[in-house]
Write a structure and sequence with these properties.
12 helices, two-stranded antiparallel ribbon, alpha+beta, elongated
Length: 446
């Protein structure tokens, strides 16, 4: 709690799904969303951002597909035994071993992000290899199972085009490879002639091409959805920044960067509501720059502001890090809130602040030798501790009264108030000579 400003730094959640929005991405997002959806064309930077955010979902879907197809291929082996018992060994080699192995290799490729070319090529090689393997199984089996196997694997490739979210060029490549392989095995089918082979191939080519068109539409809609989420993201970020700035403006003094009176009130309320902090260990130090009006009147407001900034920084570095809080309470007045403090510690911190401010050597042209000073800026401080049922307002008044006594007693002094003592408590005052390097005084006020 070195200063109230330190408690205003928000923590940023680590969200890997969020894209780092650059000004270029923001401008491109607005430009693309102003166009027709079908005209969306991503720049290389936008493509990288899109693939980065889309990767977890894209990878999960692809790997799930590979696992299920591999399991279905192995489950097909017993069915093959029922349909073609003479070719069980061939069915086991292809459906039980080769096809699962091909999917396992592709699965490894999709375990971590790869380039668009690697992803697309792995899909084309996987499905083309699987289709070729089942094509040879169809040739070996022959009969009605020949056509059945080819149509089944063509159907699987059509679904793969829709399921795998790869670039359109690779979807078209898979379509051409699948159609070519299908046509090749259709020509080799002895039970149909060339005319039927061509007609069947064209029929299934139209079907798989429709899947590529659906995939393209799906991709464009996915890109638009990404653009909308991107715009929502940077609009939300802008709103959060604006709210954070408003919070800072509402709780932080713009001149010194210290917390203002409102943030002081918030902190004190938290301390008073914390049962782990004894009230008797909470101290207020009221500090006020001596003869500040004279400095303002003679040197000007700019010099006055600079003086306040330097004094504020000096107070801030004179307190305990993460224990004490410093606030600009008003004008040239400051409040230091100490937690877990003793009277000796509070006195030490207050005296350190007084000596450090005096050591700055800020010239106050409004001060004259008759003031009993060397003509530099000094500060007076009043210290008060909480006790019993005293409210924060009461403790602040005690500290302010002690500050007033310090002012009345000659300034550049520290007064420690013991306002809760009995009326007949000993009052004492200690004053060092003006030439002493620790010019100060202590007074216990009942």
């Amino acid at each position: 709690m070195r200063s109230a400003a330190s408690s205003l730094n928000p923590t940023q959640p680590d969200d890997a799904a969020n894209v780092s929005v650059t000004p270029a991405l923001e401008a491109e997002t607005e430009r693309l969303l102003s166009q027709r959806t079908r005209d969306i064309q991503f720049s290389p930077e936008m493509v990288r951002a899109y693939r980065e955010k889309d990767w977890p979902q894209r990878s999960k879907i692809a790997r799930s597909w590979m696992v299920w197809v591999a399991l279905m291929s192995m489950a097909f082996v017993p069915v093959s035994h029922l349909l073609t018992p003479d070719f069980l060994g061939f069915a086991i080699a292809i459906g039980g071993l080769l096809v699962p192995a091909l999917h396992a290799c592709a699965y490894l490729v999709w375990r971590k992000p790869r380039s668009a070319a690697v992803e697309g090529l792995s899909l084309v090689l996987l499905m083309s290899s699987v289709m070729t393997a089942y094509g040879f199984l169809a040739v070996a089996v022959g009969g009605s199972n020949y056509e059945r196997l080819l149509i089944c694997i063509m159907y699987m490739n059509t679904i793969a085009i829709v399921v795998f979210n790869v670039d359109q060029v690779w979807s078209l490549s898979l379509m051409l490879c699948s159609t070519g392989i299908f046509f090749g095995f259709e020509i080799a089918n002895p039970v149909i002639d060339l005319k039927d082979a061509i007609g069947t191939s064209i029929f299934y080519a139209i079907g798989i091409y429709s899947a590529t068109i659906a995939h393209k539409t799906q991709t464009i809609l996915g890109q638009k959805s990404f653009l909308l989420s991107l715009r929502n993201q940077y609009h939300s970020t802008a709103l959060e920044n604006a709210n954070r700035l408003l919070e800072i403006l509402a709780t932080r003094d713009p001149l010194t960067g210290l917390g203002n009176r409102r943030s002081a009130t918030d902190l004190v309320e938290r301390l008073w509501g914390d049962p782990s902090i004894p009230k008797a260990c909470i101290a207020f130090i009221m500090a006020d720059i001596d003869f500040f009006k004279r400095l303002n009147d003679t040197a000007g407001h700019a010099a006055g502001d600079e003086c306040i900034r330097r004094v504020a920084k000096t107070i801030e570095v004179s307190v305990r890090t993460d224990e004490d809080s410093v606030f600009r309470y008003g004008g040239e007045e400051f409040l230091v809130v100490l937690a877990h403090a003793t009277p000796d510690l509070a006195w030490t911190i207050a005296e350190r602040i007084r000596g450090s401010v005096e050591a700055l050597g800020i010239v106050n042209p409004g001060r004259h030798p008759v003031d009993g000073s060397a003509g530099v800026v000094t500060i007076s401080l009043g210290v008060a501790f909480a006790h019993g049922d005293a409210t924060p307002e009461t403790v602040a008044k005690w500290a302010d009264d002690a500050l007033y006594d310090a002012k009345q007693s000659g300034r550049n002094l520290v007064f420690l108030s013991n306002a809760h003592a009995a009326a007949d408590d000993t009052r004492h005052s200690q004053r060092h000579s003006p030439g002493d390097s620790t010019t100060s005084s202590v007074r216990v006020v009942a």
